[in-house]
Here is the input.
Amino acid sequence: MKGLDYTVLVLIVVGAVNWGLIGFFGLDLVSFIFGSMSLLSRIIYAVIGVCGLYALSYCGRIATN
Here is the structure.
């Protein structure tokens, strides 16, 4: 389970960096690399979104430790 948690955390950080680039420089790195709303970029956005939802479970697990 820890491996999944770390993978999710890395993908969330990648998503956060991408949003930071969009906010500061207007550069969407995912679209730049994979094309604007191509199938692959949509999959990447969806996976990072699911990872964000999964990360909500961290809150419950932190409280129990």
Helices lie at 2-25, 29-34, 39-64. The chain is about 85% helix and 0% strand.
